[in-house]
Write a structure and sequence with these properties.
- With about 300 residues, the chain is an alpha/beta fold.
- The chain has helices spanning about 10-25, 45-55, 80, 105-115, 130-135, 140-145, 165-170, 170-180, 190-195, 200-205, 210-220, 225-230, 240-250, 295-305, and strands at about 1-5, 30-35, 60-65, 120-125, 145-150, 185-190, 200, 235, 255-265, 275, 285-290.
- It contains 14 helices and 11 strands.
- It is globular and about 50 Å long.
- The chain binds alpha-D-ribofuranose (RIB) and calcium ion (CA).
- The site of calcium ion has 7 residues, from loops.
Length: about 300
C-alpha cells in the first residue's frame, strides 16, 4: 500500500506522521506523500510543522500544500490545544523544507490515478483537500484502495461544538462531499480516542528516551499538561495516531460497525454532526469504536525512540 497522509499538523498529527515515517517504509507499506490543509493552525504553520517532523525523521517524503480555508465555512483553529505554532509552542516549528509547487488537491488526484489500486489515503484534518480532489477527479474514489478518516463523533459527543468533532466541524461541506463520494471509509471517530487515552505514564516513558526524536516528542507533548489541568483528563487522547495505527495494522480494530455516515450542514446547533445510519443497506463507512490501544502505543514508542 502506498499511503498519502492529509494533515493539519498539530501535535497529534505530528506524532502520527512520525509513526508513518518510521513504520510505512517496507514492502507492505510506503509513505508516498503528505498533503497539508489549514485546520489546527494556518496552512503556512502546518507546512512548517510537516517539514519539522520530516526533518527529525530524516525523511525524503515530499509534501504538497493545499487549501488555506474551508470550502464554505469560516476558518476555525485549535491553537488553544496545539499551541499558536501548532507544535506545542516549544520552539520546534522551523524547517528549511518547502512544499512542492503542485496543489495538494491536484497531487491527491494525480497520485491516486498513477498508483490506482495501490493507494491509501489517511485524513487527519479537515477534508477540504480531499473534497476538492473528488471534484477535480471524479474517478478518484475508484483509484483509492483504502480511505481512513479521523473525524466525526459516532455518539454525537463533539469536541469543537457540542455536536461536532473538529475535522468535520471545520469544513462540513467538504466532509459531506467525501462521505458522498466514498463508500469504503474506515472512520476513527473522536469518542474512540477519548475513551482510550494514552496514559500519562506511557507518554512520559516515550518522552524520557534519550534520542533526538524523543526529545522532539517530549517538547511537543508538554502541552498535554495544559489539557490535564484544564479538562481533568487522566491521559492523552491521540486520534490521529490511532488512525495511522489502524491504517497500517487493521487488525488493531477491536470493535466496529457499518453505517452510512451523514453530515449535517444546517447552520444551527447540529452543524457538522455526523449521523450514523445503521438502517441502510448501503453503508459508506466502517466506524471503529474500539482499538487495541496498547499495540497502538507500542507503534508510537517504536517510532519515536
Ligand atoms: O478532533 C480531533 C482532530 O482535530 C485531530 O485531527 C486533531 O489534530 C484536530 O485536528
Ligand atoms: Ca489533525
Amino acid at each position: 500500500m502506498r499511503w498519502i497522509i492529509d494533515t493539519d499538523a498539530g501535535v497529534d498529527d505530528a506524532i502520527a506522521i512520525g509513526m508513518a515515517c518510521a513504520h510505512a517504509r517496507g514492502a507492505a507499506h510506503t509513505l508516498l506523500a503528505l498533503t497539508t490543509v489549514a485546520g489546527n493552525v494556518s496552512l503556512e504553520k502546518v507546512n512548517v510543522n510537516v517539514g519539522a517532523v520530516l526533518d527529525v525523521f530524516e525523511s525524503d517524503v515530499l509534501f504538497f500544500s493545499g487549501c488555506a480555508a474551508p470550502l464554505v465555512a469560516p476558518p476555525q483553529r485549535a491553537e488553544d490545544f496545539h499551541g499558536a505554532d501548532g507544535l506545542g509552542d516549544a520552539g520546534l516549528s522551523r524547517t528549511a523544507r518547502r512544499p512542492q509547487p503542485e496543489h495538494a488537491a491536484l497531487a491527491l488526484a494525480r497520485l491516486a490515478e498513477r498508483y490506482a489500486g495501490e493507494v491509501g489515503i489517511i485524513t487527519i484534518g479537515p477534508l477540504t483537500n480531499l473534497a476538492l480532489a473528488c471534484h477535480l477527479s471524479p474517478r478518484l474514489p475508484q483509484h483509492v484502495r483504502r480511505l481512513v478518516v479521523m473525524g466525526g463523533a459516532w455518539q454525537g459527543f463533539g469536541n469543537q461544538t457540542p455536536a461536532a468533532e473538529f475535522n468535520i466541524a471545520a469544513d462540513p461541506e467538504a466532509a459531506r462531499i467525501v462521505f458522498e463520494h466514498f463508500d469504503h471509509i474506515i472512520l476513527l471517530p473522536w469518542e474512540t480516542a477519548l475513551e482510550q487515552m494514552m496514559p500519562f505514564e506511557t507518554l512520559e516513558h516515550i518522552a524520557a528516551q534519550a534520542t533526538p526524536r524523543a526529545r522532539f516528542f517530549a517538547a511537543m507533548t508538554r502541552v498535554a499538561n495544559t489539557w490535564r489541568e484544564r479538562l481533568g483528563w487522566q491521559g492523552v487522547p491521540l486520534p490521529d495516531p490511532m488512525a495511522v495505527a489502524v491504517a497500517l495494522n487493521p487488525e488493531l480494530i477491536a470493535a466496529s460497525f457499518f453505517a452510512r455516515v451523514l453530515v449535517d450542514l444546517s447552520g444551527d446547533v447540529a452543524r457538522g454532526f455526523t449521523a450514523m445510519d445503521r438502517r441502510t443497506a448501503h453503508p459508506n463507512a466502517q466506524v471503529v469504536t474500539l482499538v487495541n490501544a496498547p499495540l497502538a502505543w507500542q507503534m508510537i514508542r517504536d517510532a519515536w525512540h
